[in-house]
Structures are given as C-alpha cells and as structure tokens.
Amino acid sequence: MRPDDIYGGRIVAWLGRPGVLIENDRLQATIVPALGSRVVSLRCKTTSTELLHTPASVEAYESAPMLYGIPVLFPPNRIAGGTFEFGGRAYRLDINDPVTGSHAHGFVHDKAWEVVSCGRDEESARLVTAFDSAHYPSVAAQFPHRFRLVMRVELQGNALVQRIDLHNESDAAFPWGLGYHTAFNFPLGAASSPDSCTFSAPVGRRWRLDERFLPTGELVEDERAAQLRQGMPLAGVALDDVFEAAGDSANEAVLTDPDAGIRVRYRADRAFGTWVLHNGDGRQGFVCPEPYTCVTNAFNLALPPEATGLQALAPYASVSAASSIVVEPYRAEES
User: Fold this and answer.
1) Residue 223 annotated among the catalytic residues of the structure
2) How many CA atoms are closer than 13 Å to the CA of 322, on its beta-carbon side?
3) How many domains does the chain have?
4) Per the domain annotation, does 259 fall within a domain?
5) What is the pLDDT of residues 16-44, one digit of tens each?
6) Which domain holds residue 171?
7) Which one of the listed residues 154, 244, 252, 290 is annotated catalytic?
8) Catalytic residue among 105, 181, 244, 252
9) Per residue in 279-305, pLDDT tens?
C-alpha cells in the first residue's frame, strides 16, 4: 500500500487539511473527515466538471463555510434562542448565530469524524465515517444524550449515494432532525450561460418566516412553486425560502446545464419532508437545495410532528435517511 492509500481511497490535501478521495470510472469525490465529514468535491470525470461549490482559498471557506460542499446538519438550521423542551427536560444550546439569537446548524458539521472503513471494487467506491457525541464534552453539555452518526458515502455508477444511520446510545428518547446544506455550482459548467440553465425543486407550500428567518407556523401558497416544480432559470432570482416537500412528485431537485451537457438529480428519500432553497442574490454562482427531515425550529413549533417533521428516537433505537446525487448526460433534444 502506498503512503497515500487508505483502504481503497487516497489521501489528498484540501485547503491544507487531509481529505479522502474516492472514485470510480465516472465520478470522483473528496470527503474531509476533520470538517464534519463534509463532501467537499464531486467531479464528473467524463466532462471534467466540478459539481459542488468550492472555495478559492482558506479565507473564502472560513468566511462562509455553509456555502461549500455538503455540510451535515444535525439538527438543521436554526433553533430559536437555542432552547427547547422535550420529555420534561429543558435544553440549552450554544447561541452561534448572534444576529438572530439562535443556535444554527447543529453539532456535527465542524467536528472531526472518525474514518471507519474505505473500499472500492470495479463498480463502486465507498467511505464510512462516524461521529460519537461521547467524544465531545461540548456537545454532551448541550445535548445530554449519547448518539452516534454513521455516514456511508458511496459512488455507484453515475451516482453519489449518501446514507446516515443515527443511533440513540442513551436510556432516554430524544428529538432529532437531519439536513444537508448542499451547495452546487450553478451553472454547473464554468463557461456555461446562466440564462440557459434551469433549476427545479419538489416544493409545495412555503413556510412564512419572521424577521429572524424562523417559521411562524403558517404555511402559504407561493406563486413561484409551480415554476420551481417545472424548472426555471435562476439568473437574478433570489431564493432564501423554506418549503414543504410536494407529496405528489419525485422528491428531487434537478439542475440542468445544456452548455455543459449535464443534468444533476439530487434525490432525497421521503424522510426529508422539507426543502430549503438558497442562492444568495441569484448572481453568486451557486444554489443550495437543502433537504431536511424537519422544518427550521421544529423543536419549538406548536404543531404536530406530521406537520413539522420532528421525530423522537427511542432509547437504543436507530433510524436511517438516504439521498443521492445522480449525474446524467444532457442532450438538446431532451428539452
């Protein structure tokens, strides 16, 4: 085994940090275990196209880390005041979003994960990493339940499949939510015209947000929803919205770039009932379709779980959620 090999993957440098590169004949992915086991790069080898939004420097990354790669959010988005109650217990989380006075993006996206295994064969390549809250006193102080997340990132043909298994290792039930702040380049190709690219998302009603970007509890119809389901250009269109997933369509966001000859289908299983869409002002060269298992601040909304998506995990029980990024060739006659 060469010094840069790791059980079938390859150690590479990413902004000065060690990453693990896995690949098959179609795709190449880089994961950085020390940065929340974040997938930081996904390349289409047939077109030499980087699909994920990547920073130009360490400074760019550190100024806005949520806008690069696939951060794992557990729990996702904001919790008002960093506080909530569950099962007769009061929880107090760190306020790391002082502008809104919230806890934001959870416990695991910026912590080191352990590499469990890595392997490859003729058709696929995979990396398994794990996060154990018992190794982080700062997490245990906020969330007094031992939990483990085990994530499998696998390249299967033309798809990156991401699966997380959540294990409750404590003797009490706890509420949970999972999400990804996935940032794609948009357009996908560096030389592509923004006007020729389209984006679609499986969105239904929109959650009305207050001045702190927290849901008020009201769901409203949005005139953009039909266009988003069908597919629309995003040049100059600003998105920073929380939608319920449309129940009558495939639970996938689709990015189509005719100039690059690529279509990307970002699929989430039905555990993900919320989609957050974010692209800055629509002129920053990225779009974040973010699948969540629960809506922002679900821990504090006085609504039933079937509305918010908030779930409880029983003692010593486990649950899984999966998503995939499927990369397809696009031909003009498909339009």
Assistant:
1) no
2) 8
3) 1
4) no
5) 999 999 999 999 999 999 999 999 999 99
6) 5-188+285-334
7) 290
8) 181
9) 999 999 999 999 999 999 999 999 999
